Automatic annotation (TrEMBL):
It catalyses: AMP + H2O = D-ribose 5-phosphate + adenine. Keywords: Cytokinin biosynthesis, Hydrolase. The keyword Hydrolase applies. Its EC number is 3.2.2.n1. The keyword Hydrolase applies. This is Cytokinin riboside 5'-monophosphate phosphoribohydrolase. Belongs to the LOG family.
Amino acid sequence: MKRITVFCGSSSGTEEIYTSQATLLGKTLAKRNIELVYGGANVGLMGAVADGVLNNGGKAIGVLPNFLRSKEIAHKQLTELILVDTMHERKTKMNDLCDGVIALPGGFGTLDELFEMLTWAQLGLHKKPIAILNVGGYFDALIVFIQNMADKGLLKEVNREMLLVSDSVEDLLDKMENYVPPTVGKWIDKKDI
């Protein structure tokens, strides 16, 4: 993996561990020579992961919609800042630039981004590893809910298994490096669209 997209909150949340783990993830990406692709802001967990990369000699590419420039202040030290017009363009560009995805704690936007990447993988539009860094058990209830979707027959187990989870940065990156995508598509292949 040469680049990983990280989805996370533009706020820091209530637990210090969210910020410290975001910073550690950035530092570890830099140490492994993996470039960061993220939302481009210098605030919250977004800023922490970027600082973790940049302060350790790594490269960080931000993708920021023009209309969020005044709300999510663009990070000034980025290797590259790409401005787009819409949120959909942002997700598409972040997908195009990366070899895998990690979600850190965040809100609706983070979940939207995570689930869109999972949906695209389920449909066979990409075969990238998609992961959750489950910092302080933040995603525990979501993980249980996703298992419930499979248990109730609304999500194939093979698709549930696409989501990699760990509370350790190193372990999660190792899982992503060793990821083997499912060979069974949902309904279509990319060549069909």
